[in-house]
């Protein structure tokens, strides 16, 4: 997704459920595993961004924004 000519990276604040964040962190750590000293080398913030980006792409966010009723205020 990032780096594609059809997308740009936008830094935003997003509200997500604490349980969802915990699941992302736990799963990312399990996938990379600890090093010899028990440390995990995974950027969980990047993983959250990747997952949100994938979700937006798979759920056609581009089409969603074309509907004025989805804008509040």
Give structural notes.
This protein is mainly alpha-helical. 47% of the residues lie in helices and 0% in strands. The chain contains three helices and no strands. The chain has helices spanning 18-32, 44-58, 61-64. The longest helix has 15 residues, at 18-32. It starts with 17 loop residues before the first helix and ends in a 9-residue tail after the last helix.
Please describe the structure with a list of short key phrases separated by commas or semicolons:
73 residues, mainly alpha, 47% helix
Beta percentage is: under 5%
Termini Cα gap? 30 Å
| Rg on CA atoms, Å | 16 Å
Largest sheet: none
Count of DSSP-assigned helices: 3
Task: Please sum up the structure shown.
With 73 residues, the protein is an all-alpha fold.
Describe how the helices and strands are arranged.
Blueprint: H1 18-32, H2 44-58, H3 61-64
């Amino acid at each position: 997704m990032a780096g594609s000519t059809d997308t740009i990276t936008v830094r935003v604040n997003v509200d997500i459920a604490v349980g969802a964040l915990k699941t992302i962190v736990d799963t990312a750590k399990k996938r990379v595993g600890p090093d010899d000293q028990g440390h995990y080398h995974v950027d969980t913030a990047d993983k959250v961004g990747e997952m949100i980006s994938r979700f937006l792409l798979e759920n056609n966010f581009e089409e969603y924004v074309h509907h004025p009723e989805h804008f509040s205020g």
